[in-house]
Design a protein that fits this description.
Layout: E1 38-45, E2 48-54, E3 60-69, E4 83-88, E5 98-103, E6 109-112, E7 122-126, E8 130-136, H1 144-157, E9 160-166, H2 174-180, E10 187-189, H3 197-203, E11 207-211, H4 218-225, E12 251-254, E13 261-264, H5 278-282, H6 286-289, H7 309-315, H8 321-333
Parallel strand pairs: 3-5, 8-9, 8-11, 9-10, 11-13
Antiparallel strand pairs: 1-2, 1-4, 2-3, 4-5, 6-7, 12-13
Helix pairs in contact: 1-8
The site of zinc ion has 8 residues, from helix 7.
Length: about 350
């Protein structure tokens, strides 16, 4: 039996039966879903996609539904943050299933490539614009290699980074603040009961991915930002200093008053970056770009680079040396072991 195109909501739209498709060959006709309702994927669980139905302005409605991926999408990934066209039952009534028939164009994709733990390239989150790197100042101790690598992934994806240093009641943030200030990354320091006004301002009206090792206090932070989010928090293992992996899937949560989105991700253990080139990192340092014009062809702009224009730039006083060194640290971070 052939299925009507467009989904149940299409009947409301004028022009549903426009004759334009008649001009195309009748064989291999594919349904036209351009009027089908749009949903936002908020979490994924074993092939089931939890979506919020969006209105015509792509603002979330009250309707939340579960969908599967339609077969024609094949191996195309559907990830948290995706906007998708839906067919079938979009009532959201318990027990009903909609079908995702199309993934709308993504503005950004945060992804990681293969690493020792996981041989597949994985897109993680779509359409975010900010990457919040959550790091504890102690328990577990901060790992700058991890911070650098997550920064690089964010630069590559075109996300603005934000560093959130938690557990300031246990250790001083001074060293890390000094290390990351030259990168121009906004830094927020938190401890139990701290005022989150500045963090709220930085998250306002944006879609922010929270990334960090298990146990750094990500869920604690999300719960404080979003009353009722009910993200389960874990206790750090006394022996290993690491948290249990209590969260299993990324989830998009709306900030109070619709003031943006937080995408909480499971505690990451590894982060392959083999897809990122020095040129990708350079894009995040627009103030340095002009000085690389005279570099030798294929210059990696790193510590070993010969006649790199960035060396002339700081020697001539055109940019601070710390800025060039920060950029180079990011370029090298692509090759660091994750847990460095
Ligand atoms: N001392 C101190 N402990 C904190 C702070 N923030 C969170 N914790 C504790 O650290 C532990 C881990 O916090 P979670 O919020 O579960 O950490 P998480 O990053 O969400 O961990 P996963 O869910 O495993 O990814 C919990 O026992 C929290 O109570 C803080 O600012 N200071
Ligand atoms: Zn160079």
């Amino acid at each position: 039996m052939s299925r009507r195109r467009g989904g149940i909501h299409s009947d409301d739209h004028a022009g549903f039966d426009r004759p334009r498709r008649r001009t195309r060959p009748r064989t291999k006709e594919r349904p036209d879903y351009s009027d089908a309702p749009v949903g936002l994927v908020v979490t994924v669980d074993r092939g089931r996609y939890r979506c919020l139905l969006l209105d015509d302005a792509y603002e979330p409605t009250e309707v939340s539904l579960t969908a599967t991926k339609a077969r024609p999408l094949g191996r195309k990934s559907v990830i948290v943050g995706d906007r998708v066209r839906l067919d079938g039952d979009v009532s959201g009534v318990e027990g009903t299933l909609a079908r995702i028939v199309e993934v709308l164009e993504r503005t950004t994709v945060l992804r990681r490539t293969a690493d020792d733990d996981d041989p597949f390239e994985r897109p993680i989150v779509a359409n975010a614009d900010q990457l919040v790197i959550v790091t504890a100042l102690a328990d577990p101790p901060p790992r700058t290699g991890m911070i650098d690598r997550v920064l690089v992934a964010g630069y590559d994806a075109g996300l603005d980074p934000l560093l959130c240093l938690t557990k300031a009641d246990l250790a001083s943030p001074d060293e890390l603040v000094a290390a990351y200030a030259p990168l121009g990354v906004p830094i927020v320091v938190t401890e139990p009961g701290s005022d989150l006004t500045r963090l709220r301002q930085l998250l306002s009206d944006r879609s922010s991915v929270f990334l960090g090792h298990s146990g750094v206090g990500k869920s604690t932070l999300v719960n404080a930002l979003i009353p009722g989010a009910d993200r389960s928090t874990s206790h750090v293992n006394e022996v290993t200093g690491r948290g249990r992996h209590t969260s299993t899937s990324a989830i998009a949560l709306q900030l109070p008053d619709g003031d943006g989105w937080v995408i909480d991700t499971p505690g990451v253990r590894s982060f392959g970056l083999s897809h990122v080139t020095p040129a990708d990192v350079l894009k995040a340092f627009p103030d340095l770009v002009e000085f690389t014009d005279d570099c030798p062809r294929g210059c990696a702009h790193d510590d070993e680079a010969v006649e790199c224009g960035l060396d002339n730039a700081w020697r001539d006083g055109n940019v601070p040396r710390a800025r060039v060194e920060s950029f180079r640290r990011m370029v090298s971070a692509r090759k660091l072991p994750y847990e460095a």
